[in-house]
Amino acid sequence: MRLLLTNDDGAYAPGIKALHQALALEHEVWVVAPETEQSAVGHAITLAYPIRVHPLTTESGMQGWAVTGTPADCVKLAVRTLLPQPVQMVISGINQGANVGVNLLYSGTVSAATEGAILGLGAISVSLDTHHPADFSQAADITARLVAAWPGLGVPPGVSLNLNVPALPPEEIKGVRFTRQSTASMRETFLERRDPRGHVYYWQAGEVMSTDGDGYTDYPALLEGYVTITPVAHDLTHDPTLAALGARNLDLGL
Ligand code: MN
How much is the pLDDT for 59? Predict the structure, then answer.
């Protein structure tokens, strides 16, 4: 296949390098990724500023462009303009840190895959569950196997797969589980500091994910030692509420 790789940790991050190494063995791979880290920008796109692109350096071993935009910008720009030929899939990652629960909304990694799905392409986001420097090769190999399996999975257009890999040695990984997005949410702490001019400012200092949910939701399964795969759609409609509201008479004076 011809693949587009991106991520939100930047074109020169170790995760995308490992992913490139694993996928370039079997596929034609193009990289269009942010020039600098764009973690937690969600599905933002750039409208008020120009987007500049720089060819990736040959030392990186990757063909493509580093882009002064968001992950979603990268996918749009690559598909609409930069790539010489169409790609079949967008692979986004490997992110440093799991993308589970409510994080799917904040994640630039997941949003890049979502953008690929919106554009009608196969799409996978992949994250490794550690915030420490890590070996991404195992997660890269798992992703390469999922890409190889993709044509047989029957994932419908508009849906991407969100893959999370535990940062465990292979003998401690229990297997693969298809999961729901969990209701895990974050409890953030903010440090209050004072700048040299005496003004107070805040800096988000860390967040703790709650572990709500059963073993068939993403975060709890990941913590149990499973590789998790969650199918993700971008339609945010809450169907039960829509059905319930439809049964009411709402008078807005119209
Ligand atoms: Mn990131």
Answer: 79
